[in-house]
Recover the amino acids of this structure.
């Protein structure tokens, strides 16, 4: 059921996606439930907006368009594909967790470098280890594991 009716330009404003991107998603079969009016205009519902949010979420996790299309195709096949859809999300969750771990490691290094440069500014030199032995230990831990 259509809670309200929206068109490309309105959906673009709501989602922050360009109308070009929305048309691309439609062309690639990622928006199979968008109602098409007789004159060819697309009419979006709340459910369509939710699909767009899922598509954007999956894209943010680096899932390829063809893989997102596969998920949508599985969804259209109904309950017999629940296991496959669950597997897709579990696999993507694992990949996202791996990326989070990588980014957390990078964040540790960045935070260290910020401390290092603040100390260097404080002492007027990049040779801060003699004044900040904790920084030297942290450096060895982060960069020479």
């Amino acid at each position: 059921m259509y809670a309200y009716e929206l068109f490309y330009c309105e959906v673009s404003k709501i989602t922050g996606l360009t109308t070009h991107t929305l048309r691309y998603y439609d062309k690639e079969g990622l928006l199979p439930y968008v109602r098409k009016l007789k004159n060819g205009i697309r009419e979006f519902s709340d459910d369509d907006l939710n699909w767009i949010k899922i598509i954007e979420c999956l894209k943010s996790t680096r899932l390829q368009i063809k893989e997102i299309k596969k998920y949508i195709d599985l969804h259209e096949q109904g309950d017999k594909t629940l296991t496959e859809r669950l597997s897709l999300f579990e696999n993507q969750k694992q990949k996202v967790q791996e990326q989070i771990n990588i980014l957390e490691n990078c964040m540790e290094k960045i935070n260290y470098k910020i401390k290092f440069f603040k100390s260097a500014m404080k002492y007027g030199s990049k040779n801060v280890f003699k004044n900040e032995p904790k920084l030297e230990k942290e450096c060895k831990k982060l960069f020479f594991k």
